Amino acid sequence: MPAPIRLRELIRTIRTARTQAEEREMIQKECAAIRSSFREEDNTYRCRNVAKLLYMHMLGYPAHFGQLECLKLIASQKFTDKRIGYLGAMLLLDERQDVHLLMTNCIKNDLNHSTQYVQGLALCTLGCMGSSEMCRDLAGEVEKLLKTSNSYLRKKAALCAVHVIRKVPELMEMFLPATKNLLNEKNHGVLHTSVVLLTEMCERSPDMLAHFRKVSLVPQLVRILKNLIMSGYSPEHDVSGISDPFLQVRILRLLRILGRNDDDSSEAMNDILAQVATNTETSKNVGNAILYETVLTIMDIKSESGLRVLAINILGRFLLNNDKNIRYVALTSLLKTVQTDHNAVQRHRSTIVDCLKDLDVSIKRRAMELSFALVNGNNVRGMMKELLYFLDSCEPEFKADCASGIFLAAEKYAPSKRWHIDTIMRVLTTAGSYVRDDAVPNLIQLITNSVEMHAYTVQRLYKAILGDYSQQPLVQVASWCIGEYGDLLVSGQCEEEPPIQVTEDEVLDILESVLISNMSASVTRGYALTAIMKLSTRFTCTVNRVKKVVSVYSSSIDVELQQRAVEYNALFKKYDHMRPALLERMPVMEKVTTNGPTEIVQSNGETESAVLETKPPPSGLQPVSQANDLLDLLGGSDLTSVIPTAPTSKPASAGGELLDLLGDLNLTGSPVSAPVPQIAQPLFLLDGLPSQPLFSDIAAGIPSITAYNKNGLKIDFTFERSNTNPSVTVITIQASNSTELDMTDFVFQAAVPKTFQLQLLSPSSSVIPAFNSGTITQVIKVLNPQKQQLRMRIKLTYNHKGSAVQDLAEVNNFPPQSWQ
């Protein structure tokens, strides 16, 4: 049989192929020749054939038929054969294949070989693909080589020991005696691999970590690091003017582990960290890598305040670097430290704000998140100005998060109500289509409570929507405000800015334009029609025009508009004496939660129209079948899930005849005395404008509890009791996220025993921001007629770090005031 071609010739031939098909043909032809050679047990050219087979494997072609040939080469006495055999084993074999167990005896013999290079091959192979069984059998030989005086073998044995510890952690103590003298070695390769081994042991075993702290490992590492910094030029280890940066980075990582939550170890490394931070050259990327590891170490240990300020200043310098990766790393690190070192990060505020103008979207997003984290009462005006500029020019994918962040910051740090209203209106004007669903009711609540700003607000909103209905949330708020405070707009009572001259007909023209505009959504038209109806009591000269508009929409194809118009027509025809009382100005609303929808918000700011509706609300209770599904989901036999609650008693109203009005309208065609369906009304009919407070004063005395705290997700419960029904407890959940990544698609579910009834309202969002920068709120109403001790089972589902998370928990520590 002729001699097979050499590897070099095969590579040259394959590279001449012009098409993929031609290359495959060459490979198949050569594979056939190699198979024939293997079948003939050709020992002369086995090494050459396996080498060619490995090259084909690297190109992506199947080479599994060469596995046993690799074992034959390993068993050979020739070094060249062993080298190719071990290389083939590392590429073609892994621990999932039983064939690799046949190598165990060969590797053991080679570990005790008289030639260090053969021993090195065996160590590399075991450290690369050794299974747990092989590691148990050969750990003794590795430990012996770790104690040898040969630095070539010691560095390979240290890396092999790392693999053994990862596969069989209980063998860790076997290598402990050998680690005593590893850091006294002068060879940098041994030092590097030794630090890697010590790091692995400290990360995997708290006992090992405590042991190394006791044996004064930190001073040894400090000495090595100091020698690296102070040593002169060494061509063997120099990289861009820095002595062995790879070893420096590894030592800094190990120091970070040893100094975490340990005062003595942190104190011992403070000086050397300061030296590294001040003496490292920053003109090259190598120096920046060392500085970044130094910063991480300083922030993770119990370091001095001056050292932490130095670390943050280094990150500030990173923000001025031309390399985008370095700027991104700096912003991410500052975002992690802003909660603990807020004032030090504030010094770099202008540089951070400049990063909002960066072309890179990743840097832009990190800069936006960090900017929101830097907002406080002292800089809120300047920061909001910059963030509003950013909102004007940023990409669409940023607008929703930016608008949400501005809303939260304005609510928390607003210097005045006028500034607060102006800021939110600016956001709605700029990015109204991207704001959260609760932005409209929250702004309406803010405007309602700012009594002295009513004239100013309605004038600003009126001018904002003149001829432009593209931003639907803005049009909804403007329609609501014009309906509420249209009389102030016409009378020109605005003192904050020059009043405008507007007639009643001009105001109605705007609202009618909203009704007929193709850009208006169904919800927006509902706002506009209700506003027109309200103006029938605010204006004196246009009542007949209002009647005509309302009557036109009594036959609208939009069922929602049609129902409103029919009800409003009934007010004009049958109950005109009650119309002023029903459409009177909204009272001051009080928010139930600090960061989410309120109880008043559930009516979407349109109390008068909601009073007249007899259909169940859009966010109504779940059907009983869904409740049973949740029972099966939660696995409870004695639990009841989201259950329709009974209708409420007659609410007080300004007209005093509210229930008669609803009964006489008889929109469904059923008899007046027909019973109300069980799910027709939620537990609290907030739209009925009750004359007494919804929640009792004893709510302030009910302590809050932490219902869940795991994996960075924390859920707190706060409680309130209803005055309209003392058996009802209103629980507000607040979910926060302390990890570095957002939790998305968050869903909270709850179930209670069958003696209770439970209603879940919609959450404020489905995304929990990272670093506790925001919360999700959701309201739970629990009916407890028998005043029994409250118990609850909760189910949480969300996505975090690219994977779905699901967890169940029991909540049994409710305070007695919440259910007695």
UniProtKB/TrEMBL annotation:
Record GO cellular component, one term: AP-1 adaptor complex
Annotated segments matching region Disordered: 599-620
Domain GAE: 700-815
PROSITE patterns, per database record: GAE
GO biological process, one term: intracellular protein transport
Membrane topology category: Peripheral membrane protein
Keywords: Coated pit, Cytoplasm, Cytoplasmic vesicle, Golgi apparatus, Membrane, Protein transport, Transport
Subcellular location field: Cytoplasm, Perinuclear region; Cytoplasmic vesicle, Clathrin-coated vesicle membrane; Golgi apparatus; Membrane, Coated pit
Entry function: Subunit of clathrin-associated adaptor protein complex 1 that plays a role in protein sorting in the late-Golgi/trans-Golgi network (TGN) and/or endosomes. The AP complexes mediate both the recruitment of clathrin to membranes and the recognition of sorting signals within the cytosolic tails of transmembrane cargo molecules.
Family: Belongs to the adaptor complexes large subunit family.
Protein's name in the database: AP-1 complex subunit gamma
Species of origin: Strigops habroptila
